[in-house]
Specification:
There is one protein chain. With about 150 residues, the chain is an alpha+beta fold. It has helices at about 5-20, 40-45, 60-75, 85-95, 105-110; strands at about 25-30, 50, 115-120, 120-130, 130-140. The strands form 2 sheets. Strands 3-4-5 form a 3-stranded antiparallel beta sheet, covered by helices on one side. Strands 1-2 form a two-stranded parallel sheet. The termini are far apart.
Length: about 150
């Protein structure tokens, strides 16, 4: 069996190799970095690795939220122009949602349960450009202006 490696090991190694070629590559992990061997990627590119916890179904909501938020932050100049289109193209290619059919008022109660919410403050992950993100702390009352309504797109 010399020369053969487990599929999951090959996957983890491939992600690291691809990350060197594609600086826009990020990994969203469902608390499985040991099992899927994404821990190598996390060690080498911690700023591009996001552990979502044991909540795989929540990750589709994160995709939609990331798309919606990036559309808003691009419109107000916090995200490089063209980033939203690139992000949405990838999400759609893999059948992930890019939006939700709900108003800001309808979404606020759900966002209020987010683990990044602390009292009356939330920290948003803002994509500055593909492969580069930063944290944006906000007061809860400022949150609605960062939620793009579907009919406003």
């Amino acid at each position: 069996m010399a020369g053969k490696i487990a599929t999951r090991a090959a996957y983890g190694e491939a992600l690291v190799e691809l990350a060197e070629q594609y600086p826009e590559l990020v990994v969203f992990d469902a608390d499985l970095s040991n099992a899927t061997m994404t821990k190598g990627f996390a060690a080498k590119y911690p700023e591009r690795f996001f552990d979502m916890g044991i909540a795989e179904c929540n990750m589709t909501g994160v995709a939609a939220g990331m798309s919606m938020l990036t559309g808003v932050t691009e419109a107000i100049g916090l995200t490089k122009a063209g980033t939203t289109a690139r992000l949405r193209k990838v999400l759609e290619q893999y059948g992930l949602p890019i939006d939700v059919d709900a108003s800001a008022e309808e979404l606020i109660p759900y966002i209020s349960n987010d683990k990044k919410m602390r009292g009356n403050h939330i920290t948003l992950v803002i994509i500055e450009e593909i492969g580069k993100a930063r944290l944006l702390p906000l007061a809860a009352e400022d949150l609605p202006k960062y939620i793009r309504k579907k009919d406003a797109q």
